[in-house]
Amino acid sequence: MKLKIYSFIIIIFFLFADLKAQDYLISFEGTGESTTVTSVTIENLTQAKSLQMDGGKVLHLMGVVTGIEDPGTKGDNKVLFFPNPSAGYSRMRFIQPVSGETNISVFDLSGRQIFDQKEDLQTGEHTFGIRGMGDGMYVVRIGSGSYLISGLLVSSGSQKHDPEIVREYTELSFEKKSSAKGEAEEVKMQYTSGDVLKFTGISGSFTTIITDVPVSSKTITFNFVKCTDGDGNDYPVVETGKGEGKCIQYWMAVNLRSTKYNDGTMIPLVTEGNTWSALTSEAYCWYNNNETAYKSIYGALYNWHAVNTGKLCPAGWHMPTDEEWTALSDHFGGLGYSGGRMKETGTTHWTTPNNGATNTSGFTALPGGYRTAAGSFVSMGDKGMWWSDTGYGTANAWFRSMTYDSDVMIRDHSDQKNGFSVRCVKDY
After folding, report:
1. Angle at the Cα of 39 (from 36 to 45), degrees rounded to 5?
2. I need a surface site. Which of 25, 58, 134, 274 has the fewest CB within 10 A?
3. Does residue 353 sit in helix, strand or coil?
4. For the chain, which ranges sit under pLDDT 70?
5. CA atoms of 224 and 142, how far apart (whole Å)
6. What is the pLDDT at residue 80?
7. Cβ distance 270 to 279 under 8 Å?
């Protein structure tokens, strides 16, 4: 009998070990221009799933359920474990229909009690962490008065210390929730170890984006910073990691679409191709001269003369130097890989197949095409082009580009008469 039990444990363990189930609680806070997080959108970039939630709630990242019960199931007559089988640590969840002193007991299959603990629990759903269980199968019984429930836990732990059961979270029943303090409502989302999550925090007119691969319960802090152009447009920003010897970089998360400099003066709009090609002064345009179709998604196209005024970006922001672009691409794997990590995923905007696109940076680069020095419009959907503020000789300047068929970021220089997209970076 003992051999059969352990054979069962081994089969179950190896069947689900590769799923790497995780279970974390993620809370949110704001800093900078606002300390209130109104809402958060979470995108699992690895699984292509997303949800939106109130910023005051707690995100419960639930690992792939590996066994006997689904932790999302609210049963009132059983104890649920996840992960199950456990490699030494598991969470158990149960619904308590009565309030009062409650016994939590653990028995091995011989009926021997190996653990007993008393808790004062209120009516509601409770989550406890359980660790220190040795290799085997265990029955956990929870009782208060005439109320008794149980559940089966399979463990492959090494039992390096005595069993521990620690309360982690309580969600009171409806009639008592209003009086609970310090307890935030959970929003559940499936999560597997290694998944890349994109968090978009919103507070009024402020939007900050952070990407992360959680490895434990934590608090995500959104630094809400002002990014408002000469037209009064507010831009989302993305925290991209540390620059070369500098602090964390904050970049605009979409392309600039301003028709005014940051001092309120108008940027010349040039539509006619021959006029554009003859320019030696600043100008902007919309792709195909179609503001309605392209402004909100792709932003405007600017020649480098507009870039070189030093007034194009919102106050407190500046055009990225060639070195700042290099620091950004280096942070995401260098020129050979960073393009894919910075491109928006899918083919809604990018031409199929949009090779290598993961957007693990949160930068969400779009293929806005460009205007040639001769005045024609090309490469919408195929390519995105972005200026730096660094000139090359007297007639060229450095830029970065990404294409639909590669995960490479291209660094090159080109004619200053070209119309490229613009992303600004926050002043340090």
Report:
1. 125
2. 274
3. coil
4. 1-22, 64-77, 146, 159-161, 172-184, 242-247
5. 45
6. 86
7. yes
Query: Where are the extended beta strands (E) located within 286-359?
Result: 301-302, 317-318
State residue 59's pLDDT score. Answer: 94
> If DSSP codes are grouped into helix, strand and coil, which group holds residue 19?
helix
pLDDT at 83: 82
> Which superfamily does 64-185 belong to?
Macroglobulin (MG2) domain (2.60.40.1930)
Kindly list the distances between the CA atom of residue 261 and the CA atoms of 67, 229, 231, 266, in Å, as whole numbers in the listed order. Answer: 59, 8, 8, 6
- 277: alpha, beta or left? (left if phi > 0; alpha if psi -120 to 50): alpha
Identify the pLDDT of residue 75: 43
Predicted local distance difference test score (pLDDT) of residue 183: 53
3-state secondary structure of 134: strand
Query: Which single residue is written with the structure tokens 């005014």?
Result: 260
CA 376 to mean position of chain CA atoms? 37
Do the bridges between strand 237-242 and strand 206-212 make them parallel or antiparallel, or are there none, so unpaired?
Answer: parallel
At residue 242, the pLDDT reads 55
The verdict on whether omega for the bond into residue 83 sits within 30 degrees of 0, i.e. cis, is: yes
Residue 400: phi and psi, rounded to 5, are: -125, 150
Query: For residue 78, what pLDDT is reported?
Result: 76
The helix (H) or strand (E) run that includes residue 227 is: none
What does the domain layout of the chain look like in residue ranges?
A: 64-185, 252-426
CB 307 within 8 A of CB 397: yes
**Dist. CA 171–CA 178, nearest whole Å:** 11
- Look at residue 39 in the predicted model and tell me its pLDDT: 96
